[in-house]
Amino acid sequence: MADLGIARLGSEADAHNTLTRADLADVVHRKLGLSRAESASLVERVLHHMCHSLSDGRNVKISGFGTFILRDKGERVGRNPKTGVEVPIAPRRVMTFRASQIMRDRITKG
Fold it and tell me: How many domains does the chain have?
């Protein structure tokens, strides 16, 4: 997996250690030499394309990172924990993320 310096952001990330769009755009700006506006636009286009593919019902697989998987869940019966009354839960589509083995190894090693 190509390392653009994202894994080493560390103290550059916000106080909650969350990688944001702005952080990604900044890495693209620094590593590829694009302007800040071009970098932000590139990040937005990639995220937009991923979202569009998912909304069209396609899974998104990024080699060395992981796969965003769509799954249709059928209708089922749930129960109100307070009253015990059964409540039907409508069928829905959910998205899950499965990290690649490379990503899992990197996370495990720290």
Answer: 2
**Encoding tokens for residue 59?**
């899974």
Task: Give residue 13's pLDDT.
Answer: 44
CA distances from 59 to 64, 65, 82, 91, 110 (A): 15, 14, 37, 19, 28
Q: What is the pTM of this model?
A: 0.74
- What would the two tokens of residue 50 be? 């991923």
Secondary structure (DSSP) of the chain? ----SGGG-GGGS-TT----HHHHHHHHHHHH---HHHHHHHHHHHHHHHHHHHHTT--EEETTTEEEEEEEEPPEEEE-TTT--EEEE--EEEEEEEE-HHHHHHHHH-
- Evaluate if residue 41 carries a pLDDT over 50: yes
What is the extent of the structural domain holding 18? 1-56
For residue 5, the model assigns a pLDDT of 52
Pair 20, 47 in one domain: yes
